[in-house]
Each structure stands twice: as C-alpha cells, then as structure tokens.
Fold:
Amino acid sequence: DVKVTQSSRYLVKRTGEKVFLECVQDMDHENMFWYRQDPGLGLRLIYFSYDVKMKEKGDIPEGYSVSREKKERFSLILESASTNQTSMYLCASSPSWDEQYFGPGTRLTVT
Amino acid sequence: GIQVEQSPPDLILQEGANSTLRCNFSDSVNNLQWFHQNPWGQLINLFYIPSGTKQNGRLSATTVATERYSLLYISSSQTTDSGVYFCAVALNAGNNRKLIWGLGTSLAVNP
Structure:
C-alpha cells in the first residue's frame, strides 16, 4: 500500500510566523502535490513537483513556496503566515500524476 | 475550462440502504478517480476508472466517458460510509497536467 505521511495533524501558528509543512511518501513516486481544502471551495492545487528540485505553480501559489530536495519529501512553506491561510492542507503523491494518493492532512490555524 | 459537477450535494441514508452518486464533466478527460474523505479528513482512493465498471466489495463505479459521466454505487450502506465523496478528472493538455475536482457529495448514514 502507498503510504503518505504529513508532519502534523493539527498546527496552530501566529500571524507572521514562518511555517513548514512536510510530506513524505514511501513509494518512490515521481510526482507530489500540495492542496488546500476550504469549505465550499473544494480542493485547490497550490504547487506540484514532478521530479527532485523541480516545481510547478498550481492554481493558488501566492503566499506559499515549496522545496523538494529528496524524491520522497515535499515541503510546503508559508513564508509569513496570515489568517487567510487557515485551512486544511493535503499532500498527495502519484506514480503517473493522475492517480493520486493522499496523506492524512494538516489542519493549520493561524491566529 | 472543464467543469465537474457532483450530485446530490448532500445525502442522508438509513443503514442498509443503497445509493447512487453522480459525477458529470463537461469535456473529454483522460481519467477519473473517486475518493472518500472520512470525518477525520483523510482522502482515500476508491476507484481509478477512465471507463467501464469496477467493483470493490459493496462499492462499484461506472464511467461512461463518451457521455461524460461517472456513477458511484454504494450498496447496503454502513455508518462507516459517512463522509464526503469526491470525483476528480484528469486532463492532459500539454504541460497542464492536473486534476479537476468536484465539490463533493456529503453522505451521512444513520444507524
């Protein structure tokens, strides 16, 4: 079975803090993704990566950056957290980009 | 761009009942996935189904790509089936490789 893990289930941060969300997959997948999920808006793609050190912007990259130094790990960075970044963050990995497997999610609250 | 519509938006069932969830999409797609998001937020892959019919226990799915819809059948529902069901379609237009998500069907199964 594919296993995708995320560093925290729940996280509370203050406005202006730098926040790191980490995602690790154990299936040697090329592709990894970061989404945020908000009520009424569904899942929205923030960034994705199809190879080590490669990244592509998704639909809502503003206020976020990513890092992929190793194939199994994809990090999402909030440079200066704001209250409108309070959300559920979901990481996924995929062998072929269109069949995605998700981690358990991180509920981030920015106060 | 392509639109993905799911119906019904909300559904309440008594344990043991059967149900059908629908996913319509407005253009040709390369693939389609069904997911279940449990009450703790975890997205679980149910089916990866570009066309045809697949079955897994009490769940089955049918995609008719030529008519641009997919159906998810849940038979003999159980309380553990509660949660939100999403369909996501895969486009492959040049470098625009991403999933387009529906807004989900929220299912509550009462004992």
